[in-house]
Specification:
Helices cover about 70% and strands about 0% of the residues. By secondary structure, it is mostly helical. The longest helix has about 40 residues, at about 50-90. The protein is elongated, with a radius of gyration of 21 Å. The relative contact order is 0.14. The model is unreliable at about 1-15 (pLDDT under 50).
């Protein structure tokens, strides 16, 4: 059985035959297979595609939504990594500075308090470290933002195409995507960077 059909969306209208023809999930390395399957299953359960065309559209929309999730996670991870480097440099005179910076970047409450206290003692702060991280990676962040805008534009174009096919269907798609995006923002993204990036 094809990898992409091993966990066929249980809420989709039966029979669902088209997903088997669309290939494996477009995931990279250790990306969350279960998360992708959950998103696909959620949209199928909500929308209950009635024909192969709607199945193809749903798969395209899932891939586009996943692209936006991937880009947002990339921004958060990039900022967390760079901010932790800056904290490590600020705490260079602390024997356990590298470990403190690493724990701070994960959002550990005790580490955040300890690091903030240590940074104040050297005339700095976590907010300062995040600001430096954002400034030093500004060009990279701008590129990611442009990629996000492009992915969201492609998703909007796909929804407009659906408008011609099934207007009530599109309204359900929009609601399902909004719910999926709200859920994604509450997942375990790096806390420090997630707070730093713009909405």
């Amino acid at each position: 059985m094809n990898e992409s059909t091993e966990r066929m969306p249980s809420g989709a209208a039966a029979p669902v035959t088209t997903f088997a023809l669309l290939g494996a999930r477009p995931l990279i390395g250790s990306e969350d297979t279960a998360g992708y399957d959950e998103l696909l299953a959620r949209l199928c359960a909500t929308l209950r595609p009635s024909d192969s065309l709607e199945e193809v559209w749903i798969r395209d929309l899932v891939d586009l939504v996943w692209d936006t999730f991937r880009l947002r996670r990339a921004k958060a991870t990039m900022l967390s990594y760079r901010a932790a480097q800056e904290v490590r440099a600020m705490l260079i005179d602390y024997p356990d500075g590298p470990k403190m910076a690493q724990m701070w970047a994960t959002g550990d409450e005790t580490a955040v308090k300890n690091v903030e206290q240590a940074l104040r003692s050297v005339g700095s702060s976590g907010e300062h470290a995040i600001s430096i991280a954002m400034w030093s990676y500004m060009q990279h962040m701008e590129r990611l933002d442009r990629m996000l805008v492009s992915a969201e534009a492609r998703r909007s174009a796909a929804l407009r195409e659906l408008d011609y096919h099934r207007s009530p269907f599109v309204q359900e798609v929009r609601r399902a995507i909004a719910q999926a995006e709200a859920s994604e923002r509450t997942r375990d993204a790096p806390p420090i960077a997630a707070e730093a990036q713009p909405a």
